[in-house]
Amino acid sequence: MEDVMLPILIVGMLFIGLPWLIFHYITRWKQSGTLTVQDENLMDDLYETARRLDDRLATIERIIAADHPDYRLASQSAPDRDLRDRDMPDRDYRREDQDPIGSRRR
Q1: How far is CA 65 from CA 52, 71, 75, in A?
Q2: How far apart are CA 3 and CA 89, in angstroms?
Q3: What percent of the chain has pLDDT over 90?
Q4: What's the mean pLDDT when you consider all of the chain?
Q5: Alpha carbon distances (Å) from 100 to 4, 30, 72
Q6: Can you spell out the DSSP letters for the chain?
Q7: This prediction's pTM
Q8: Longest distance between any two alpha carbons in the chain, whole Å
Q9: CB-based contact 39:68 (threshold 8 Å)
Q10: Can you tell me the distance from the alpha carbon of 63 to that of 56, in angstroms, rounded to the nearest whole number?
């Protein structure tokens, strides 16, 4: 009985289980090719958090520089570090064959 069941099990796994697994993950991959509204909101929140942290770091550096005159500000050596002066462009994180994110927001 074991001699019959093992080949049937192997053939079933090869011709039914493996293609199902492959097609399942191909479908998941195609569905996850876009950003959800939650992902967009998370990215906006992360950008705001990074901007606030950069502001705090700049403030701390100014305080340290005021207390210790020989301290060199890191922002003096990297002028593009300040996020407040830069406008974050609307980035399109979708694939090229889909409608852009910016067209839905406006």
Answers
A1: 20, 5, 11
A2: 65
A3: 33
A4: 78
A5: 56, 17, 43
A6: -HHHHHHHHHHHIIIIIHHHHHHHHHHHHHHTTS--HHHHHHHHHHHHHHHHHHHHHHHHHHHHHHH-TTPPPHHHH-GGG-STTS-------S-TTS--HHHHH-
A7: 0.42
A8: 87
A9: no
A10: 11
